[in-house]
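Replying to the earlier thread about multi-chain prediction with a worked example.

Input:
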Amino acid sequence: MAQGVKVTRPTKIELIKLRRRLVLASRIQKIIKDRVSILVMEFLQIARQTVATKQKLLTEFADNYRALSLAAGHHGYLMLEKELIAAERDLGVATGTRNIGGVRIPAFEMKGAEGAQGYSLSDTSAWFDETARLSTQCLDTMVELAELQRSMDLLGREINRSKRILNALEYLIIPALGVTIKYLNMKFEERDREERARLKRVKVLLERK
Amino acid sequence: MTSDIPYERLLQKSLQGELKIVNSQLPVQPKPLADLLDEEYPQVVCRDGTTHLFRRKELDYLAGLLDDDDARKELGLPIMIEVSSGAGEIAVLGTDVTAALISRLLGMPLQSKGGRVVIHKPQLALLRQKLRTTTQYVFRPPTEAL
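Result:
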């Protein structure tokens, strides 16, 4: 049996206040329930995407290492190192925020990966180009994966928090309000009955006189 | 008075806080697709002061679906998806341009009634999969008396 809400005086004004509170709590409970179901749907979508992206990254790493091995075999390690130093450049990650159902998640986008590679085209071969292309792809996928993993973490925490509030509303607050409203109604009915009984006795006494 | 009890006051404050969080992602002013395509970092400002960044790929995808320049100027982003707690239905809010766009995306004829296109949960999942950053949820509280 749910425990009631503490009430100082069993008056009609208190009953009206409790009814309003019950309406507010019920409305919020419905909204939060919808929000939780939407967030869970988003979480599952992002989880599936994360798994797929992780798999894609592992495949890309494998392909990249294979291409690098072939380039090293073709050019030699010294030549490869020389061209890799020339290919060094600054890359940036543009960051921002996105919002999913009230949850702020990070947004990352790779900048500076496109454009000229920086190494000599005459001294290198298609093996090197392929390695450079795959490396850029790996970097893009890593940034995408970072965004997805962080989003999943934040959504999971928000779902936990909202579920706790939902459960508190559903199993504690709303039943407690209901019990107190019922108790107050019973009190008022009792009072009415006593009043009517008292009036009847007074009427009988007056009639006797 | 009941409202003087600290626990009750705390409870009311936290519940009001929840209502504020739920629709904090809504934009202050939606931006047309045509304007967003010209921006280097396409974004809108949300009600809570934060910014919501759109993905360039999605904007290009939407531009590809809408060939007409007027339609691109008319389409306001993000597209609002209304979740009604009372009625238990999901609807995409927008003009006929939005309805036509959603119809093309989902591959089924949909009509806008009173600026709303009613969809179901599987369609919502598909829509969100394709337009993750260019759609936003708006949670409408139930209006019926309890």
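Chain A has three helices and two strands.

Feel free to reuse this layout for your own posts.
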